[in-house]
Amino acid sequence: MLAEACNPDYRSYGTNEDWLTRDQLAEVFKMIGSAVPDLRWTIEDIQTIGDQIVVRGEASGTPTAEFFGAKPTGKSFKTMSIDVFTVKNGKLASAYHVENWVTALQQIGR
Description:
Layout: H1 2-5, E1 6-13, E2 19-21, H2 22-35, E3 40-49, E4 52-61, E5 77-88, E6 91-99, H3 101-107
Parallel strand pairs: 1-6
Antiparallel strand pairs: 1-2, 3-4, 4-5, 5-6
């Protein structure tokens, strides 16, 4: 799915300097998905400005395996995410993103 939506040279920035390739990001999603099989991302707000798309979203789920070092407790989390995507040639070229995983870990009882 990432291959369809993203350019081959897509970059996913977790900081202003550090980024993952499209393939590396797919592996991260697989890891998170294996720990949180009911992981759901919902769009709460979306804005477009020129070639950029700003998305305020919510990630939610219940970990069934170790998640960022926290053992599963049966508790669920809901946390905010912010993404700023840039579009090039009709596909995503890059994303700068922030997820509030600290809050998620607090909610599941870490």
